[in-house]
Write a structure and sequence with these properties.
- The structure is a single chain.
- This protein has 442 residues and is α/β, with parallel strands linked by helices.
- The chain has 3 domains: 197 residues, NAD(P)-binding Rossmann-like Domain (Rossmann fold, 3-Layer(aba) Sandwich), CATH 3.40.50.720; 70 residues, N-(1-d-carboxylethyl)-l-norvaline Dehydrogenase, domain 2 (Orthogonal Bundle), CATH 1.10.1040; 144 residues, 3-Layer(aba) Sandwich (Rossmann fold), CATH 3.40.50.720.
- It contains 18 helices and 15 strands.
- The mean pLDDT is 95.
């Protein structure tokens, strides 16, 4: 099959490269000359483990190319995937469909033979039919179908998610489009990975419902963690016990500083907005959004308590600022709430993150970036573990404590324990949903 992929952001690039590894002929298209130039030089503009190697393999095979020329890319294509951004629109919380609609209209003007226009971007329910109408108006003679194919890629594990998915969702309104998408995903079907074909609206809704549910699990366990701190329970034991129930499962039950990233914040807000527009308030989702913001702000209170209620003049080391490990994505990361509060409070902040500086240097002004965690904590008054990169899971805590002016730690990912902190010589240690340790400082 010949595929054109419009957009070389996270979803488009990962999907295009993986489709080419299925054996399809894929052309990835982007208007950003810098991105295309970089890709044609063999450089991946995002961080995703293993993606550079997979890209190199399929470029060498001749199945994967990159261009700014949309007309050439869609010439003879069986399917054109739209994988452009749908950011939250300012003012109303709705997904901004400008890029999606512009891409659809451009396809309509350039296409000359039958193809399926596949919406890979996350879009509100009804968008695929809007796209269909827009294409028909732009080119009444074009023979085409529209399909919805939402993505479910976890940053940091995207290749595995694409190659071994829990499910593939395909929304269509014609058998012809369904057959094209079935042929594209045949390599997964032959390996017994489920491909669910639905109507357009159901496919669109599945994406939002799934992300809202996962965001709810995260927010629920964070709220339980707050209560655990008040009553003396241990959230790690509580999460483990709850997750043993097959009806609940143990995934997304890890307490932390709140969810972030490219999907959950944007998609929960868009779902809440859809509910408002249809007079069906998404009360659970609206509460999840509110509570998640409160969770992030509560982290600042924790840090203030450890710093004797003042950040002014304190040296604070931040370990990890991306919203999760194994990505360079900073979108809606808890660090964007926590770090500015520290800087604004007069703290001298040092940041260490394996991949976060590329985006973070503009998003987190007023901080010093360092490469090594042991350098970051030199003479520091507090170290904050904010993102659980593997590099931060096996730190020599005694070495950390000995380098600090005042050995205090806020472990906002529950990587370590009070016992670990005490043994290493810390005078204060706080985490999420567990015992606070604080003693007379040496």
């Amino acid at each position: 099959m010949k595929i054109a992929m419009i957009g070389t952001g996270y979803v488009g690039l990962v999907s295009g490269i993986c489709f080419s590894d299925f054996g399809h002929d894929v052309t990835c298209v982007d208007k950003d000359n810098h991105k295309i130039t970089k890709l044609n030089k063999g450089k991946v503009p995002i961080f995703e483990p293993g993606l550079d190697t997979l890209m190199e393999k399929n470029v060498a095979s001749g199945r994967l190319t990159f261009t700014q020329d949309l007309a050439a890319a869609i010439n003879g294509a069986d399917a054109v995937f739209i994988a452009v951004g749908t950011p939250t629109r300012r003012g109303d919380g709705h997904a901004d469909l400008t890029f999606v609609m512009d891409a659809a209209k451009e396809i309509a003007k350039l296409a000359t033979e039958y193809l399926v226009i596949v919406i890979k971007s996350t879009v509100p329910v009804g968008t695929n039919r809007q796209v269909k109408q827009a294409v028909r108006e732009a080119n009444p003679k074009l023979d085409f179908n529209v399909a919805s194919n939402p993505e479910f890629l976890r940053e940091g594990a995207a290749i595995d998610d694409f190659m071994r998915p829990d499910r593939v969702i395909v929304g269509v309104d014609s058998e012809r489009a369904g057959q094209v998408l079935s042929d594209i995903y045949r390599p997964l079907y032959l390996r017994d990975f489920p491909v669910l074909i639905t109507d357009l609206e159901s496919a669109e809704m599945i994406k939002y419902a799934a992300n809202a549910f996962l965001a709810t699990k995260i927010t629920f366990i964070n709220e339980i963690a707050n209560l655990c701190e008040k009553v003396g329970a241990d959230i790690k034991q509580v999460s483990k016990g709850v997750g043993m129930d097959d009806r609940i499962g143990n995934k997304f039950l890890h307490a932390g500083p709140g969810y972030g990233g490219s999907c959950f914040p944007k998609d929960t807000r868009a779902l809440a907005r859809m509910g408002q527009e249809n007079a069906v308030p998404m009360q659970i989702t609206e509460t999840v959004i509110k509570v998640n913001e409160e969770v992030k702000r509560r982290m600042i209170d924790k840090l203030l308590h450890l710093c004797d209620h003042s950040f002014n003049g304190k040296i604070i080391a931040i370990l990890g600022v991306t919203f999760k490990p194994n990505t360079d994505d900073m979108r809606d990361a808890p660090s964007l709430t926590v770090v500015p509060a520290l800087v604004g409070g007069g703290a001298k902040v040092r940041v260490c993150d394996p991949q976060g500086q590329r985006e973070g240097k503009d998003l987190l002004p007023g901080v010093n970036w360092v490469e090594d965690p042991y350098e970051a904590v030199q003479n520091a008054d507090l170290v904050v573990l904010l993102t659980e990169w593997n590099e931060f899971r096996g730190l020599d805590l005694k070495r950390i404590a000995n380098r600090m002016q005042t050995p205090r730690m806020a472990d906002l990912r529950n990587v370590y324990s009070v016992k670990d902190a005490k043994t290493a010589g810390f005078v204060s240690y706080d985490s999420i949903g567990r015992e606070l340790f604080k003693t007379t400082e040496k």
